[in-house]
Amino acid sequence: KDAISKALRSRDAFLLHGPPGTGKTTTIIEIILQEVKRGAKILACAASNIAVDNIVERLSQYRTKLVRLGHPARLLPQVLDSALDAQVLRADNSSLAGDIRKEMKVLNSKLLKAKDRNTKRDIRKELKTLAKEERKRQQLAVADVIKNADVVLSTLTGASTKKLAGITFDLVIIDEAAQALEVACWIALLKGPRCVLAGDHLQLPPTIQSVEAEKKGMGKTLFERLTEGYGEEITSMLTVQYRMHELIMNWSSKELYDNKIKAHSSVAGHMLYDLEGVNKSSSTEPTIILVDTTGCDMEEVKDEEESTMNEGEAAVSIAHAKLLVESGVRAIDIGIITPYSAQVFYYMLSVLIKIYR
């Protein structure tokens, strides 16, 4: 509540620092809803399509007029109904454009059959006029959808579209701002007088492929620079996390967040065996297990693409996953994470099948 209140009072920039599991997206949604109630028109962006779609999906639960910009092929299926293309198809001007296209189809058929030169000329002239009107109607349909939306959502680079030319927003919100390049942030930020940047600069930064750009400061995000420059003056940090057992949380809270992160009572002591159908066992009882494979002849090898693979460690993790399944944990609920593509490939082809035998 304090973070939301501070964001609503902000006259220019506000930073929402959201460590893992602390409800950053939920807070963003509430800020949007409160701003819409006040009559604000909002541009909400993120660096990735998946992060934008996550906001769209959450906002769709409310009676908020929103539109998602972007190519439908890059959007999640569950947000396609909110996409600009889908809404344009339902618009009155788009319907008129469709009628014009039908008329043009009839004229094209007549043109193919016409033999008289003057008749052909007149048909072509009429087709040209109709084509111009069709484009105009289609553009009006797009403009109307965007104009009537309370919230427009796109990726940061997608905000550079000509469809937003000349439109000023009351508030610009950027989610995952600590993983976005500053230059991309400015595409959206220049479209409004106020902004809310949400993210966590203590997690992974954006990927900078240019060594020279990294040396010249491109690796430092706008979120990080504003945090260093203004600190608590413009920042609210969410400190209660709702995702993980407190034993899993403790390390990051201590090492990264000055012991400020606390586990909510609903998750602080939750265990695997609290799940329906899962038995309490030596596999499901430990909250966290660290396995030291030093000196166990589990050697790393490189594949043809120089990616790393370790068959021994794969076998250990798969064996543990199998024990979890035997204790009642559904295989679909188990995630195995590795930083190497070769290891992932090894799991997929050689080992995972053992769980289902």
Automatic annotation (TrEMBL):
<keyword id="KW-0347">Helicase</keyword>
<dbReference type="InterPro" id="IPR003593">
    <property type="entry name" value="AAA+_ATPase"/>
</dbReference>
<dbReference type="InterPro" id="IPR027417">
    <property type="entry name" value="P-loop_NTPase"/>
</dbReference>
<dbReference type="InterPro" id="IPR041677">
    <property type="entry name" value="DNA2/NAM7_AAA_11"/>
</dbReference>
<dbReference type="InterPro" id="IPR047187">
    <property type="entry name" value="SF1_C_Upf1"/>
</dbReference>
<dbReference type="InterPro" id="IPR041679">
    <property type="entry name" value="DNA2/NAM7-like_C"/>
</dbReference>
<dbReference type="GO" id="GO:0016787">
    <property type="term" value="F:hydrolase activity"/>
</dbReference>
<dbReference type="Pfam" id="PF13087">
    <property type="entry name" value="AAA_12"/>
</dbReference>
<keyword id="KW-0547">Nucleotide-binding</keyword>
<feature type="domain" description="AAA+ ATPase">
    <location>
        <begin position="10"/>
        <end position="262"/>
    </location>
</feature>
<dbReference type="GO" id="GO:0005524">
    <property type="term" value="F:ATP binding"/>
</dbReference>
<protein>
    <recommendedName>
        <fullName>AAA+ ATPase domain-containing protein</fullName>
    </recommendedName>
</protein>
<keyword id="KW-0067">ATP-binding</keyword>
<dbReference type="Pfam" id="PF13086">
    <property type="entry name" value="AAA_11"/>
</dbReference>
<dbReference type="GO" id="GO:0043139">
    <property type="term" value="F:5'-3' DNA helicase activity"/>
</dbReference>
<keyword id="KW-0378">Hydrolase</keyword>
<comment type="similarity">
    <text>Belongs to the DNA2/NAM7 helicase family.</text>
</comment>
<dbReference type="InterPro" id="IPR050534">
    <property type="entry name" value="Coronavir_polyprotein_1ab"/>
</dbReference>
